Amino acid sequence: MKIPLKTKQAVKKHFPNGIKKLEIGSGDFPEPDYVHLDVQPSPDLEILGDVRQMPVPDNFVSEDVRAVHIMEHFCHPDYSSQAMRTEIGTTLAILEEVYRVLKPGGRFVMVTPDFEKITASAAKRKVPAHWLQRWSVGGHRNEYDVHHWLWTKQDARQWFEEVGFVECTDWNPVQGWRQLISLDWTAPEIDENPDWFKIEWYHWLFYEGKKPVV
What we know:
This protein is of the alpha/beta class. It is 32% helix and 18% strand. It has helices at residues 8-14, 82-88, 91-101, 115-124, 129-137, 153-163, 177-182, 196-202; strands at 19-24, 35-38, 47-48, 61-68, 107-113, 166-170, 204-210.
């Protein structure tokens, strides 16, 4: 097992040329070819740290920061109590921290449940409720696996631009009516449906933005 780094000094010493690609909240499914940062120790972890205050120097990640299913674990910057914002952190504060560690020209790549698509499927009863509930509230496997705010594309656009990101885009791989009608919506379960992963992707918000080069 690796001994994960815990301080900015240690990270800088271990990565003297900076980090190309950083995955935050990597959890049990770390992405290959990334340096991994998480608050919980794991065998694949290089950096042990809280994404709210990462032990990573400013302008240290040159290519991209990746966050898959962690941004929903933080509070809305306005529609939450001060106590909750202090204890848990806010969506906007995490974006600001990501912006800090990225070099100009680097990108933030995010995947998070899409509130609008989840509620639309709930209204049409297109997907079993237990999946929609899991995407909405989290798995509750531990104290961190709880969702505090589900994003919309408008949320992403507003907060990314407020922090300073440019070239913000929705990059969901499942788009367009031709692709949607080709999916098998009649058996939306993992073991029964080879299209399941695309149906799942459809209910997620894939969004990215670039830290501008001044």
